[in-house]
Design brief:
By secondary structure, the chain is α/β, with parallel strands linked by helices. 41% of the residues lie in helices and 17% in strands.
Length: 317
């Protein structure tokens, strides 16, 4: 099997590439032109690609002839989406369109070819302000995105479904909820808590962790479990369908912070930083994962306590 990971040099892509190689896939990943390849990859080809350049996307997909395409390239920070809404829309919507259009053009060509199975990665943020009776959130719940990032991913999802229905492309959409692990950017809360705790232990920061809203609840999963689900859905998922990927259990940000503090060797105070509060905050997001489990048999295997401990150890290094 040949797999192409678009946007594969980032946090999730590194784990996905390693998992696919363990399954025996020949793997290629893309990165932005000029971007450093952060993680060491063995037995994987790396291509420079800007997904906003439509012809470049088409050339690469024609050249690589993947059995599976995992579309991870995105502007994935909610906080940054408020500051750079145009960039978020361009990358998440126009970039996805370029990938789907290239696959449609290839499938419509004269030469016979096997259609690639495509996984479009969205976000649990698409659901937005869910009602109390809608928790845990099923894939059929009305989308009420509460930020620019979520709106762009909801649009990507709808476009993916249209391309599956109108052109017969093998497009599967996923809505992953919060996933964490080593090498994650401190733009995200749990990684930032670990970074700050490690800085404090090293004497490089005063013994205060600055936080945003700790009362919101999110569905956290180890990234290694998430990429296992991606690989299973790429193979077994039904074209045109959307699948939640998460643990099925929401935890407060406060609880996640407590895990970090419990594993820290320092005596740390917690202070709310007004600059870390978002303009709009959804109180609870929790996934109903039965649809995905019925198709794949997947279940999370790694305890979050282990994940947080590994993340803190990684920042200490």
């Amino acid at each position: 099997m040949r797999s192409l990971i678009i946007g594969g040099t980032g946090f999730v892509g590194a784990y996905l590439a390693a998992h696919l190689r363990s399954l025996g896939h020949k793997v290629a990943v893309t990165k932005m032109p000029g971007e450093a390849d952060t993680f060491v990859r063995q037995d994987a080809e790396v291509f420079a690609l800007d997904i906003l350049e439509k012809e470049a996307v088409l050339r690469l997909l024609r050249e690589w002839k993947a059995d599976f395409v995992f579309h991870l390239a995105a502007q994935s920070s909610v906080a940054l989406s408020w500051k750079k809404p145009e960039l978020t829309a361009d990358v998440n919507i126009k970039g996805s369109l370029h990938v789907l259009e290239a696959l449609r053009e290839i499938a419509a060509g004269q030469e016979p070819c096997k259609k690639a199975r495509v996984l479009l990665v969205g976000s649990g943020e698409e659901y937005g302000s869910v009602l109390p009776q809608e928790i845990p959130v099923r894939e059929t719940v009305c989308l009420r995105p509460g930020n620019i990032y979520a709106a762009s991913k909801a649009c990507q999802n709808m476009i993916g479904r249209i391309y599956a229905q109108a052109y017969g492309l093998e497009v599967i959409m996923v809505r992953p909820f919060n996933h964490i692990g080593r090498n994650q950017s401190p733009v995200f809360a749990v990684a930032d808590f670990c970074r700050q705790a490690a800085q404090i232990e090293a004497g490089r920061q005063e013994p205060v962790i600055r936080v945003g809203n700790l009362d919101v609840k999110r569905d956290f999963t180890d990234v290694r479990d998430v990429v296992r689900a991606y690989a299973m859905l790429a193979e077994c998922g039904k074209a045109g369908e959307t699948y939640n990927v998460g643990s099925g259990h929401a935890r407060s940000i406060r609880e996640m912070l407590r895990m970090v503090l419990d594993h820290s060797t320092a005596n740390i105070r917690v202070e709310v930083d007004p600059h870390r509060l978002r303009p709009v905050e959804v109180p609870v997001i929790e996934a109903d994962i039965r649809k995905m489990q019925e198709v794949t048999g997947w279940a999370p295997q790694i305890a979050l306590e282990q994940t947080v401990r590994e993340m803190l150890d990684d920042w200490r290094k």
